[in-house]
# Entry
Amino acid sequence: MNRKLSEKLSALFSLKIGNISPLLAEPGKIHFGSDSSNLMDDDEIADLSAEFLSLMAELLGSKNPDDRQSPEFHALEMFFASLSHKILMRGGRVEEVVRYTQLLQYTLIEALEKDSGIPFTESRSVLHYFTGVFNELIMAVFRSYLEERERVLEAQAAELRETSTPITEIWDGVLTLPIIGTLDSSRTMLVMEALLSRVAKDHAEVVVMDLTGVQNIDSQVSHHLIQIVRAVQLMGSSAIITGIQPEIARALISLNIDLTGVTTRASLSDGLKEAFRRLGIQVSHKAS
# Structure
C-alpha cells in the first residue's frame, strides 16, 4: 500500500472510529463461550473493541503500516495473543478468538467501504492490506494457543512425574518408593534423580522399593531397576526390594539378572520390618 493511500486510509479510519466502535460493541453480537456460559460480558467486549480500534489507528498512522516488524504491529499481535491466553484460561477455545478476529476484519472493511471515497482499484489494495494484517493476527492467536498448550502439557508432565515417584519418609531415615507400571529409560532417570535427591535431603539410611504394582518385566526394565539400587547404595544407603510377584521372579531368573547383594522381601510390610531392624528399631503390637 503506497504512502498516499495509507495516509488517506489513516485519516478515514480515524474519522470513522466513532461509527465503527458501536458496531463492534453491540450487545450480544460477540459471544465467547458456550450457549450456557459467557466468558466475557458486554462491557469487557466493548473495552476490547475500543482497544483494538486504538491499536489499529496507531498502525495505520505509523511511518510504514506495511512493516510487520514495527512496534505498532507488534502491539496488535500482543493484543490478540493476550486475548487468546485470557479466553483459554477461562475455558474457551481458540476457534472463538479466531471468529472474533474475523468479525473485526469484516466489520472494519464493511464500515470503511460504505463511504470511503477511495477508487475501486485502490479499494482492492485496501482489502488486500487488511487481509494480510488479519491473517498475521490470526497466526498470532494460534502461536499463543500453541505456546499455552505447550505450557499446560509441560505442567501436566511435571505433575505426572511428581505423582509417578511418590517417595515417602515412613520413618526417620527410612524412605519408601512404590513403583507402578513400566520403568523405561526416561522414567528411570526421573525416579533415580528424585530418589537420590530425597536420600541426600533426608539422610536416609534405608530405601524400600515396592514392586507390587509392576506387572511385567524385561531385561531393560530389570537393568533400570538394578541401576536405581546401585545408585542408592553408592549414596551410602541400603536398598530393599519388596513385592516381587511370582511372574516377575520367574522372569528375573530366566533373564539371568544378578541380584547379588540386593535384599528382597515378600511384602512392603516385611521390607519395613527389615528396615527397622537395620536401624535398631523394635516395633511391637500394643497390648489391648
